[in-house]
Amino acid sequence: MGDTTIELLTEAARSISGSADVTARASELEAQTDHQHRLIHDQCFSLITLQAPVARDARLITGALDAIVDLELVGDYAYEIVTLSGSITHRPPLLIMNQLSDLGARIRDTLSSAIDGWRGTSGQPVSVRPLEASIRAECQTLYDKLTTLLASPVDGTPYATLLIVCKHYERILRHTVCVAEQAVAAAANLT
């Protein structure tokens, strides 16, 4: 599910950069994320009801349940970014679009680190909180620029759309931090 969500976030970044229509692929990935969420959810509840896990195992299962909710929400926001990007009729300045793409790439890399924490491939999972402050500041700077451009005498519709995209990125970041922290807690439960 983590890989699918990362791929969907990649499609969102591609849609912002003006790549060819990625809506069909993003729709497929979003449906796949929803399906994976239901499967994992059902498996976790099956474990809880049929096996009555002890405290440590129960905490691991509830952590996984929390993580899949966050991943599903990341997928929803990423798909919404694809939809919003497709509605932009004329492209804003390239500098703004590049900043949004770079922001999306940083958040995607952060999500990838969070997912690696769940896999256990990167050793002990680490908190991504130190990255959160700088990415959030970058979001705010971009949001302020877009607000200024929205007030300009030209058609502000694309800037209003990009303001929503920027807020979605902030929400994705918040859920990414939760996924990483849940991985840290799950690893602590296993030791």
Q: Can you characterise this structure?
A:
The protein has 191 residues and is mainly α. The chain has a single domain, classed as Methane Monooxygenase Hydroxylase, Chain G, domain 1. The protein is 83% helix and 0% strand. It has six helices and no strands. It has helices at 2-16, 23-51, 55-86, 94-119, 129-150, 157-190. α1 (2-16) runs antiparallel to α4 (94-119), α2 packs antiparallel against α3 and α4 (94-119) runs parallel beside α6. The longest helix is centred in the last third of the chain and has 34 residues, at 157-190. The protein is elongated, with a radius of gyration of 18 Å. It starts with a helix and ends with a helix.
Entry keywords:
mainly alpha, single chain, Methane Monooxygenase Hydroxylase, Chain G, domain 1, 191 residues, 6 helices
Q: In percent terms, what proportion of residues is strand?
A: under 5%
Total beta-strand segments: 0
For this structure, what is the CATH class? Mainly Alpha
Note the total helix count: 6
CATH superfamily: Phosphate transport system protein phou homolog 2, domain 2
Oligomeric organization of the protein chains:
single chain
Gross CATH architecture: Up-down Bundle
Mean pLDDT, to the nearest integer, reads 88
Along the chain, the helix and strand elements come as HHHHHH
Which overall shape is indicated by the principal axes computed on the Cα atoms? elongated
The third-level CATH topology is Methane Monooxygenase Hydroxylase, Chain G, domain 1
Which radius of gyration do the C-alpha atoms yield?
18 Å
Biggest sheet, open or closed, and with what strands and sense?
Answer: none
